[in-house]
Specification:
2 copies of one chain form a homodimer. The first copy, chain A, has 470 residues and is α/β, with parallel strands linked by helices. Chain A has 15 helices and 16 strands. In chain A, the strands form 4 sheets. In chain A, strands 4-11-10-9-8-5-6-7 form an 8-stranded mixed sheet, sandwiched between helices. In chain A, strands 12-13-16-15 form a 4-stranded antiparallel sheet. The N and C termini of chain A lie far apart (63 Å). The interface between A and B is large, with 95 and 96 residues.
């Protein structure tokens, strides 16, 4: 169906006739088209121009083209049918037979970073694209402000202050390609001004630590307990990355008194807190905790993205900056040259403005809340000796394990059986501090598949335990 | 219309009731909502939940909510109307009154980098978004391959080999956020392996040189003449950036014998040629010249983007790499974390596959070709003493000027009158080599506006010449 809409013209084929050459024009054309098919420049099923169109384009008689097409058809390169456009038969590089990228052999994906992309609201999103395109100003389709589309910055600032309690002014709200992009920018800006020690919770997401290192930061550790990060354990740092709403990977929430202590630390040490508010929209047990940022907007950078809440494919996030950082970060963003798609920004602004994003989040809260109940119930029944940890929020739980090495062994065995899963030790600093556990994401899979995946995981755990008890 | 679709619920408002506090629940609610409106967390015209919904959400009686809403309405914070949802009246931070970003005071934009975004094919693009979303696999909406969506890589490789004669295999075709992104990646990869001298034509686009420097390259110069770049003038470099199809800014095309000489140079010096094929799709005088890359696919990196041919807002480009560079560049791209929107990749793949991109290019060739004829005719008539230079291609012409300093003065005077324009000296190395001229882009403006803009520009030039002749 699609192929039938494609029409190729002579100029698209790069056909060139040299009328000064001895070889007849038809021979030259024949050679060039045969070469194009052999080399893969023309692939199977592509439509060729009609004899009339090609003759006009090249300024030759239609008879010449008829001879060329006839010869190529006789040789099996193209296919001629009465009343239909000629098409390429085969013989070129058939790129569609190449292997697609490999998903790493994962059959059941329980990795904690995956939302339920199957629930992507295709219809509402399409409507947002349509309406935003219909209303887009011409300037919106050109080179846009590297800080983001103004209308989107306004919509995001309103959204964040309304739902997360963030003190957000649109002028201090910047659009990025997501939280890792934001962190990468901030790491470089801080490093350039000489602030090169960035603290991370132990454990914390290893990819974020890698991003900070690549951005010129020395990564230092901060201890956590069941109330969240302990600022008194930070040994000299100019910044600290935390996830107060739902610590990754342990799943604890930063306690109120700890929030105050953290802000005190930042003010005394003149340090910056980078609040990674990933998946904070998802709380299933009541009203969510507001963002830390509102306690000290001058000492906290707020980072958010649509990767967990909407779709990783969108590559859209934001940060809210203290005024003192605005100039430097904006400049870094402008030099970065990697502005976020303006078309997506237009559509997402619309999606936010008309309440579709709120609706989507409400729906997903129900979906994920039900999944979390399902998975915790199932694990309590199947593995009564193992504790399920983490607040009723986000997209993952922690299943307690007797030791980090047990957790790592179970993870590797599960992976060998096609179950993608994380364990806490993967995200720890070298010493693997704190309680051990498996990090089980329930975002990506619906209940029946979750049940199958957990059934297999439980088998792995039981087998491992039997072997090491006996 | 839009506002009426928005519904805010209690959890979106972060309302929290502390039932242990002395203050009555209604007082707590009142204070919190008043604070939210004052602080701008709720902005004018936003809809509030109905009394029934809010009462349910918070687990209080409907009478409590009625009292709270009544009090806030009496104070002028919210607006209650029979049969309609309550809305916020005003008092918060009204972000819609903030000034939008400034376009630099440009009224007539003759800068050479701008395509005609007003001709963006909104309907065909929307269809591509719709059809690609309808057919998207769930995995396409998740975290995608940093090298780009496979289907798009296949479509781009086919497109490039078909229309530009590029020897492109999808596995060596990577998706980027555009040519500056590609150049930035390549600069870093080459610098890391010790290849730190990158040659650029003099003159050449200053922003590309800045990107190379930021990526760790020492920028060295290569002279050009009317046949394009002269490889014999390159004083030691491991790479060279060229635009063979339409040199920026001079508008010359790289002559056939020079292409051979350039490839010889690359092979002897074991150097890499970075072919910036920007706007090569636009030739108005016959069949376009094929890409240099096909002469030596192992020594040329091909760079392209949709910025000039489609819309800068899309942030989508590509590069075709020699096999020897694949591993390093793919790794750099993966670490870069800044993957291009998967939704845009899906849509653009569809747009290419069904022939819409070819159709769009054919249409734009006619539009730009007519504009170029119009502008050259007008300038020949109004300024017979000034040469119009550059091949009939791309989106800009060069208007010859007696000296670089004259060109620079005219540019500044024109800018003061609201005419955005470039001159060759802006893109030269320090010595301002070669013939002087104004670089006039005709991509962004339709003929009537072009005529006005050129009329004003001609006035500036005449005035300047009269002053300096008298």
């Amino acid at each position: 169906v699609l192929e039938s809409q494609r029409k190729i013209q002579a100029r698209d084929l790069l056909l060139q006739l040299d009328r000064s050459r001895r070889a007849p024009v038809s021979r030259q054309l024949e050679e060039q088209m045969r070469g194009a098919i052999r080399s893969g420049a023309l692939v199977a099923d592509e439509q060729l121009p009609s004899t009339r169109v090609l003759a006009e384009d090249l300024g030759v008689s239609r008879g010449v083209i008829l001879r060329v097409y006839g010869q190529l058809a006789a040789e099996g390169y193209i296919c001629l049918r009465q009343g239909a456009a000629p098409t390429v038969r085969a013989g070129g590089l058939d790129t569609r037979t190449l292997p697609p990228r490999n998903g790493g052999g994962i059959v059941y994906d329980l990795r904690p970073h995956l939302p339920d992309v199957a629930s992507f609201p295709r219809q509402p999103w399409l409507r947002a694209v349509r309406e935003s395109l219909a209303h887009a100003r011409v300037a919106d389709l050109g080179y846009s402000d590297p800080a983001g589309l103004w209308d989107l910055r306004v919509a995001v600032a309103n959204y964040l202050s309304r739902t997360r309690g963030v003190t957000a002014h649109p002028a201090q709200t910047l659009i990025t390609a997501g939280s890792t992009h934001s962190l990468s920018l901030l790491s470089r800006v801080l490093a350039r001004r000489g602030d090169r020690r960035m603290a991370f919770e132990n454990p914390s997401h290893r990819i974020l630590r890698a991003v900070a290192s690549m951005g010129g930061q020395t990564v230092v550790r901060a201890a956590i307990d069941e109330s969240g990060v302990r600022p008194d354990t930070i040994d000299q740092a100019e910044s600290l990355v935390v996830s107060p709403a739902h610590q990754f990977p342990t799943g604890v929430v930063l306690a109120p008194q700890r929030r105050t202590a953290l802000v005190d630390w930042a003010q005394q040490a003149e340090a910056l807190i980078l609040e990674d508010d990933y998946s904070a929209e998802f709380r299933y047990d009541g009203v969510p905790t507001g963002a830390l940022q509102s306690l000290a907007p001058d000492h906290v950078v707020y980072l958010g993205s649509t990767g967990k809440t909407f779709a990783p494919a969108l590559r859209l996030g934001w940060m809210v900056l203290p005024e003192a950082l605005m100039d430097e970060v904006s400049r870094e963003l402008a030099c970065n040259m990697l502005h976020v798609s303006g078309l997506d920004q237009l559509a997402f602004a619309r999606f936010l403005q008309c309440g579709d994003f709120d609706r989507h989040l409400r729906r997903m809260r129900q979906v994920y809340g039900a999944r979390r109940s399902f998975i915790t119930g199932l694990l309590a029944e199947l593995l009564p000796g193992h504790e399920v940890r983490g607040i009723a929020g986000g997209l993952h739980i922690v299943l307690g394990m007797p030791s980090h090495s047990t957790a790592a062994s179970v993870r590797l065995e599960a992976q060998a059986l096609g179950i993608g899963i994380d364990s806490i030790d993967q995200h720890s600093f070298a010493d693997s501090a704190g309680p051990a556990g498996l990090v089980i994401g329930y975002g990506a899979l619906p209940e029946p598949t979750l049940e199958q995946a957990l059934g297999k995981l439980v088998e792995v755990i039981r087998r491992y335990e039997e072997m090491h008890q006996g």
